Amino acid sequence: MKQMFKIITIACLISIFTSCGGGGGGSKIEGPTLSLGEALSIIVDQFYINSGLDDEYGSRGEFSVYLRDAATGQDVACTKAEDGMEELSTAGIYYGGLSIPLTEVDEEHPDEMARFQLVFVEQDGEGCPGPIDDDDDIAGISTEFMFDSLIDKKIWATNGQAVAVLRNQSSDVTTVSPMAPALEEGLIIDEIYFNNGSDGQSSSRYYIFVDQIESGSSTYQCQVDDDLMADVRFGDIVYSALGFPISCFSANDPDFDFIKVRLGLYIQKSQGPVLVGETEATAIGDMIGENVPFTNGKGYVTFRNIITTPFASSALRLGELASVEVTSMSYELTPSFNPTIELHIMNGSGDYIIACAGEDQGLTGVDAPGEYDDLSATFVAATGQRELFGWDDVIVKLVDRTDGYSCPKPLEGDPTTLAQSGSLSGSDLLAGTIDFLNGAGTLSIEAPTSDNN
Questions:
Q1: Mean pLDDT on 224-242
Q2: Is pLDDT of 219 > 80?
Q3: Dihedral of alpha carbons 34, 35, 36, 42, sign
Q4: Deepest in the core among 161, 174, 231, 422, taking most CB within 10 A?
Q5: Residue spans per domain, the chain
Q6: Of 126, 13, 137, 132, the residue nearest 77 (C-alpha)
Q7: DSSP of 244-256
Q8: Residues 273-311: pLDDT tens digits?
Q9: Helix, strand, coil % (nearest 5) of the chain?
Q10: How far apart are CA 243 and CA 192, in angstroms?
Q11: Smallest Cα–Cα separation from 16: which of 176, 251, 236?
Q12: Do 2-168 and 188-303 agree at the fold level?
């Protein structure tokens, strides 16, 4: 069964994520409750833990995802290292095209669930299928959610530092979103996928060599940063949102778009680097934002799109949100004594902080209700946030933080919300004035309008 899903994954991905025939068996999951049998027919399809973790596993770790019954707090199923999680050990890499099954946890738990949470764990103890123990580190926990958010949805931890997408065994592989467009010109790798058979089943070192092609011959060769490629170690995985720059060609070159290049992916073997697959020689301008397959059909490279005007993309980017300046503000609700007042830009459903501004970012002297002019505070990225896929919309909250921490650290508990905006797009942010809901106040901001910000 596992091999069947690998074949389906390859077929779907090499055809640039077009839908393909349904997979094999597995229980049909209809909801609104989930039985144990149905839970064990669920597969982890996408997985990410970021590099902002404050522990020894800040680079690599032994990760697992636990499906928790939110009503009892008991964990029902989890992902085992030997079923594929051991290949997903690098923090900060977004993995897609996966087929990692859930396994029943060896602990008392209910047989039927109606409310769920995902728990993201770095395992130092027994590991799945054992229960989470005191030696394990919790990298993140999602909010509680119902059945309609369980399948084929990004389920984020509340700290914004972990996410997974689940699917049914009988469903097709899900599409990994393209990385948010870059704000600077260049040739940047978004995704890498390759299938090199048995060679890809064990950890190996891979390289990407880039040749400039003139009149059918290589006239110059360079290499994608070897330290970046060190995180690409197994085949038959979609490595996504990489942001690997190919820096050997300058975007300032007037002929940049017309330079023909060929990318080759190589695996290190005892006899030296051996070719896995290579692209056709193609002009750089025709590769930006495109999926470029290997000529042997064994993989592809997708390149990041470029939109250099801030807030011109449909996706709000971290680089844009983390440069917004606060110039004035008013609010009416009274905070606690000696409060920690912060502004938070959050994802559209309010699950986690993307960027924030507090005392250290210049938001000072605003500890009581009133109108505040001549402010000079700048949002910064919340700890652990990195540029992935962007956000269709965001909300802004003015909060009295009660967890004992401050921006840019993610929330460790629920703050007191003093004011909150509705859903905001890039054009709303560019307008410069945000009215909080229910007449709770206003916020004036300045958003960057050129690539110099």
A1: 96
A2: yes
A3: negative
A4: 161
A5: 2-168, 188-303, 318-446
A6: 132
A7: EE-TTS-TTSTTG
A8: 999 999 999 999 999 999 999 999 999 999 999 999 999
A9: 15, 35, 50
A10: 11
A11: 176
A12: yes
Buried/exposed 184-206: b ≥16 CB within 10 Å, e otherwise: eebbbbbbbbbbbeeebeeebeb
The predicted model scores a pTM of 0.89
* pLDDT single digits (tens) 395-407: 999 999 999 999 9
CA 137, CA 54: separation in Å to the nearest integer? 10
The one-letter amino acid at 21: G
Q: Which residues of 383-416 are buried (b: 16+ CB within 10 A; e: fewer)?
A: bbbbbbbbbeebbbbbbbbbeebebbbbbeeebe
What does the pLDDT look like over 340-388, one tens digit per residue?
A: 999 999 999 999 999 999 999 999 999 999 999 999 999 999 999 999 9
Domain 2-168, CATH: 2.60.40
As a whole number of angstroms, the distance between CA 141 and CA 122 comes to 12
Contact 87, 233 (CB under 8 A): yes
Q: Which numeric CATH code is attached to 188-303?
A: 2.60.40
Question: Are 58 and 199 a contacting pair, CB within 8 Å?
Answer: no
